[in-house]
């Protein structure tokens, strides 16, 4: 992941169009791009998801989460509010995987649960931008989202006693981020970093209220971050 980020940064810094942004009097690209009432685009990116656990009792041993990088892809619909504010709808598809390690077990088959999730996300965001400087413009973005976890297994009759870790299908939360708009000759390129915070408890507890896997979990919520590369 670090190599990918480094390559992206170097590509931006070494390209002729990117270096032109910092000249004293740069040639302004796409001067009418931000004057449109409606704008469209798409994004590609990477994510890393984690879980935040809340426990009923402090037993001294937390559930371990082994995180991995996933990918996200989606579309953008933007409505101009004024010179500095835009409303954005960014529906997308996200894949991520997390491995949970439960304490107190002597065998790996009982202690380890692999959680693979495919989310269809529907974020509604507000983008607040600074004044354009040459061919670049910083911004912050934030808003709420709802998502559907296609790999939730919420309706499964099996639980952890059968090796099945279940999660709720519908998730609600908010995201915050920042980035920069870079105006090239042909399109607007916008890398950004987003933080994602679920508000709803995503855990479907085991049928046994004293389950060694879920019995002590009061709530389980997703935390994560995105690196999005947007093209408009």
From TrEMBL:
Top-rank taxon: Bacteria
Domain Outer membrane protein beta-barrel: 31-202
Keyword vocabulary terms for this entry: Signal
Region forming the signal peptide: 1-20
Protein name listed in UniProt: PorT family protein
Pfam family, one: OMP_b-brl_2
InterPro entries: Beta-barrel_OMP_2
Organism annotation: Flagellimonas nanhaiensis
């Amino acid at each position: 992941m670090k190599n990918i980020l480094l390559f992206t940064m170097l590509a931006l810094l070494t390209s002729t169009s990117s270096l032109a942004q910092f000249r004293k009097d740069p040639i302004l690209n796409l001067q009418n791009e931000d004057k449109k009432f409606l704008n469209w685009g798409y994004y590609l990116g990477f994510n890393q998801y984690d879980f935040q656990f809340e426990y009923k009792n402090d037993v001294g041993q937390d559930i371990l989460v082994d995180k991995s990088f996933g990918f996200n892809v989606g579309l953008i619909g933007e409505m101009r509010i004024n010179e500095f504010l835009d409303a954005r709808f960014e529906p997308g598809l996200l894949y991520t995987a997390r491995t949970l390690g439960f304490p107190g077990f002597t065998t790996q088959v009982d202690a380890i649960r692999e959680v693979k999730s495919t989310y269809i996300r529907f974020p509604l965001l507000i983008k607040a931008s600074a004044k354009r400087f040459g061919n670049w413009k910083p911004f912050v973005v934030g808003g709420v989202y709802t998502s559907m976890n296609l790999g939730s297994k919420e309706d499964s009759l099996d639980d952890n006693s059968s090796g099945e870790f279940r999660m709720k299908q519908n998730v609600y939360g908010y995201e915050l981020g920042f980035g920069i708009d870079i105006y090239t000759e042909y399109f607007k390129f916008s890398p950004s970093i987003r933080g994602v915070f679920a508000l709803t408890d995503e855990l479907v507890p085991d049928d046994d209220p004293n389950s060694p896997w879920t019995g002590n979990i009061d709530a389980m919520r997703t935390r994560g971050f995105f690196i999005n590369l947007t093209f408009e």
